[in-house]
Amino acid sequence: MTRSLVLTADDAGTDPDADREIAALLAGSPLTAVGVIAAGSPDDESGPGAAPGVQHLVELLARSGARVAPGVHVVLPTPEPPGGFGDVVDRITAQADVVARAAAAAGLPAPDRLDSHRGTLYGLAGRSYLGEALGVCAARGLAFRLPRGLELYGDGDPLLARPDIRERHADAVAAADAAGVRLPRVIATHRGGDAEARDYPSLRDHYLRLLARLPEGTSEIFLHPAPDTARLRAAAPDWWRKRTWELRLLGDPVLAREIDRQGIDLVGAW
After folding, report:
1. Which residues pair with 72 in a beta bridge?
2. Which of 63, 72, 116, 200 is the 20 to 30 Å CA partner of 126?
3. Is the pTM of this model over 0.90?
């Protein structure tokens, strides 16, 4: 078996400056995939389709010439209401429809996978919506960002080491397999903010180490690249620097050389 990697820019569709950079990266960097937010602000109740940048984003992606199939980066409002969301399938479906319509209008392939902004579908900090999410994926032929193994994303995380979480994860992987929903082998990112990232060389070393640890099969590394703007600094005072460093990383020839040196195949989907 070979080692293949989906290299994803997440949180697209909400910041026009970041969207322009992401589109440019697709045309000239190792980036291979984009996760699109199709709801309003991740913390409000404005509902699916409220992000005005989705159509503009997919038009930028189309003009890049990359022919990328956008991913649906599902947002549920926080905090979660008592008892959870009874209409979560409708919410997921509506957000997938927004991305699908925008992609069709721009001449891009239909969305090919679904994932969860801030993990709200997974039930790590509230009710689990894995069953509902897998049902939507099975009905629409979408892959789902649920890793078969937790060995990279779960590094040093006591929550993901808990036996009940491990059991829930194993049940979800089995359910995905039974439904024919494609899953990545592992997923990985940098989970901290500016303080944890420290500086650009440290952040780059973190991602280079992740490349060395990728197992056989198709895995995903996702980042949140963005340029240094007043809007980003105001919206993300504790992690704006890391986002600018991740943008820099995707254009860094050291990253491209290391992917090539390790014989990792860059792909757009798992």
Report:
1. 36, 114
2. 72
3. yes
Mean pLDDT of 196-223: 98
The strand pairing partners of 246, in sequence order, are none
Pairing relationship of beta strands 265-267 and 217-223 according to DSSP bridges: unpaired
The span from the CA of 14 to the CA of 53, in Å, is 6
Give the dihedral of Cα atoms 25, 26, 31, 32; nearest 10 deg.
Answer: 170
Q: Which domains does the chain have, with CATH numbers?
A: 3-267 (3.20.20.370)
8 A C-beta contact, residue 96 and residue 114: yes
- Find the helix or strand (DSSP H, E) in which 4 lies: strand 3-12
**Cα pseudo-dihedral 65, 66, 71, 73, rounded to 10:** -70
Residue the block writes with tokens 């500086």? 199
The C-alpha angle 219, 220, 225, rounded to 5 degrees, equals 165
What does DSSP assign to residue 111?
P
CA angle 189, 190, 192 (to 5 degrees): 145
68: which DSSP letter?
-
Alpha carbon 56 to chain centroid distance?
A: 19
Complete DSSP assignment for 188-233? E---S-HHHH-SHHHHHHHHHHHHHH--SEEEEEEE------HHHH
Which helix (H) or strand (E) element contains residue 39? none
- The Cα–Cα gap between 70 and 50 comes to 17
Residue 48: pLDDT over 90: no
